[in-house]
Amino acid sequence: MRLKIKHVIYCLFGFYTLMIYAFSELKTTPMPLIIPEGWPKPVYDFTKNPLTKEGFELGRQLFYDPILSRDSTISCASCHLQATGFTHVDHDLSHGIEGKVGTRNSMAIMNVAWSKNFMWDGGVNHLDMQPLAPLSSSVEMDEKLEQVIQKLSATKKYKKLFFNAFNDSLVSGQKILLAFSQFTLHLNSYNSKYDKYIRNEAGGDFTEQEKNGLQLFRKHCASCHTEPLFTNQNFEKNGLPVDPTLNDLGRFSITRLPVDSFKFKVPTLRNIQFTFPYMHDGRFKKLREVLNHYTETAALKTQIILSSNEKADIIAFLLTLTDNDFLFDKRFGFPRD
Amino acid sequence: MSVKSRILLFILSCFAYPATAQLSILPVFGDRTIAENTWYVSTKGDSVQFDNIRFYLSDMQFEMDDKTWIKDTVSAHLIDVFDPASLHITTQKIDLKRLKTIHFNLGIDSLTNVSGALGGDLDPQKGMYWAWQSGYINLKIEGRSPRCKTRKNAFQYHIGGYLQPFYSMRKVELPVKNAGVNRNQGAIQQGVILNVDFSLFFGNLSIATQNSIMMPGKAAMQLADYSTSMFSIHATKN
After folding, report:
1. Rounded to whole angstroms, how far apart are CA atoms B194 and B62?
2. 3-state class (DSSP) for residue B233
3. Residue of B109, B133, B137, B213 for testing the chain A interface, max A β-carbons within 10 Å
4. For the residues B124-150, what does the mean pLDDT come to?
5. pLDDT of B23 higher than 90
6. Which residues does chain B have within 8 Å of residue A150's beta carbon, measured at their own beta carbons?
7. Rounded to the nearest 10 degrees, how much is the dihedral formed by the CA atoms of A317, A106, A90, A230?
8. DSSP secondary-structure letter at A70?
């Protein structure tokens, strides 16, 4: 009987406390994703991770913080620099902790809300799970999620940031991953000269060469690099000879289906002016080399035939995919406080 | 867990407390309970010792003798053989006398595998998630055997994979009636005892050659098939 009375008292006390909490204001500020007109519906399910200013800010801090790596030397931004479309410029293979070199060229981070899977082989099945790969890779950050949680929990700064974003200062793997998505989902590029041309806006006047480049692009390239995202999100075999020093089987290593051998994810071409070197192993430094590969290879379903002038036109068009608003947006840069 | 949900849970538990049942997991190797730093001998004559055994039980459902089904409120439980707290699962009240069959999945279903960052026992911080090839590890068995000519004689089985044809989650269905005698009588006062006998897993295996399976594929599928035989209901009490 005494136990029951105790229970009732605890219940009432609990209920009272709950009411106080229920009516206390949630301090998060919604920050919904801007979906450009005419774009497809995003793949990401925002109902499970509603975007907020506070979540974005936490994700941004995490993105730029080397605390994530085992020896606090490498942050996400080490290989994903804003000014080059959030990728590692001028390295064929990206390098991480202690100067160790990986087996692929880092991918650009852009318009990820529309991506079904991630990495060159599509091994990561959801944006939320993407940070786990570089985090645990022995040649990138070489760190365990449990360790990151401990390190973040020991700082006042992150306790506060987690509280702001989730109304709870307790750090967890789930919250870290959701916060990363909050940041990267906003890394959207949709204000290039090409976009302005499509939208008939000021600054979108194409030269004759760029117009011709777009026509040629639509004829020869767009089946894989489909507008407006400039990727069909599929895995394709593009005829690159295998690099025997890497023997990268691509998508096959995930699906184990022979048909997927040497297939790699079709990357976006947005901001391609700055994302060099190109291809999954960064083997080409210049766009001209990429186009030469596509006209020389016999591996494509339909042979691409382009004159030298036509290649120049396509490259002129590709340069219209540069989006300086995105590359220099202060909200996406290193957080200076 | 947020302060708010903790309080809510507390209030709920005030009301729910008398109406729960226990499902206890009893990890054994043949007729011996599994403990750390202890040698066991498989039916194939292999000596084995365990450092880490963890697995997911998910989508648990209780089928009653009147054909009603009661669903567990928690979608997945991470069982750690060396963490006693994880060996007792509290479910909602069920009339054990009328319990006919227990259904659960060993591992995590494909939908959950593609649902992004989840919390609780499904938080990737639990170490049961693959980074380079997304997906949960359904069952992890790590240990040593002199039969394994590997570094430190280690064997490690990480069984997972959610994509066909290597979908390694397994459905388990255990009739409760005709249950055997509870070996651990007295230790567990109430509820269902789920016996997990790892000797049945190792009885199938050639650990000299199969000692490191860490990715989805044919080998993982075979081990997943072996793993379902480990489960049985040993006794129920009311």
Report:
1. 13
2. strand
3. B133
4. 96
5. no
6. none
7. 0
8. T
Q: Kindly determine whether residue A256 and residue B15, on different chains, have CB atoms separated by under 8 Å.
A: no
**What's the CATH number of domain A193-325, 3.30.70.360, 1.10.3300.10, 3.90.1150.10, 1.10.760.10?**
1.10.760.10
Closest CA to A279 of A87, A29, A35: A87
- Distance, in angstroms, between A68 CA and closest chain B CA? 14
**Out of B4, B116, B163, whose CB is closest to A128?**
B116
Contact residues, chain B, for A126 at CB < 8 Å: 114-117, 134
Assign domain A46-189 one CATH number from 3.30.70.890, 1.10.3210.10, 1.10.760.10, 3.90.950.10: 1.10.760.10
Closest CB to A135 among B1, B3, B131? B131
* pLDDT digits 0-9 by tens, B50-90: 999 999 999 999 999 899 999 998 999 999 999 999 999 88
Contact B77, B194 (CB under 8 A): no
A264-299: pLDDT as tens digits:
999 999 999 999 999 999 999 999 999 999 999 888
- Which residues of A lie inside 8 Å of B (Cβ-Cβ)? 7, 10-11, 14-15, 17-18, 21-22, 45, 48-49, 119, 123-129, 132-133, 135-137, 144-146, 149, 166-168, 170, 172-174, 177-178, 181, 254-256
Examine the pLDDT at A132 and tell me if it is beyond 50: yes
Q: What is the ipTM of this complex?
A: 0.84
Note the Cα A43 to chain centre separation in Å: 13
The structure tokens listed for B19 are: 């109406």
pLDDT of residue B22: 77
> HEC states along B108-153?
CCHHHHCCCCCCHHHCHHHCCEECCCCEEEEEEEEEECCCCCCHHH
Provide the shortest C-alpha distance from residue B17 to chain A (in Å).
Answer: 10
Tell if the CB–CB gap between A149 and B133 is shorter than 8 Å.
Answer: no
Average pLDDT for residues A218-237, to the nearest whole number?
96
Q: Which candidate, B79, B55, B221, places its Cα nearest to that of B136?
A: B55
Mean pLDDT rounded to a whole number for chain A: 92
Cβ of B118 within 8 Å of Cβ of A168? The answer is: no
Asked if A17 lies within 8 A of B7 by C-beta distance, the reply is yes
Is the pLDDT assigned to residue B20 strictly greater than 90?
Answer: no
**Contacting residues of A for B166, CB less than 8 Å apart:** 256
Percent of chain A past pLDDT 90, that is, above it, reads 82
Average confidence (pLDDT) over A118-129: 96
Instruction: Determine, for residues B11 and A15 on separate chains, whether the beta-carbon distance falls below 8 Å.
Output: yes
Q: Matching CATH topology for A46-189 and A193-325?
A: yes
Interface of B to A at Cβ within 8 Å reads 1-4, 7-8, 10-11, 14-15, 17, 113-119, 123-127, 129, 131-135, 163, 166, 216-217
Domain ranges of chain A: 46-189, 193-325
Residue from B61, B37, B64 nearest B51 by CA: B37
A151 has pLDDT over 60: yes
**How far is residue A108's CA from residue A72's CA, in Å, rounded to a whole number?**
23
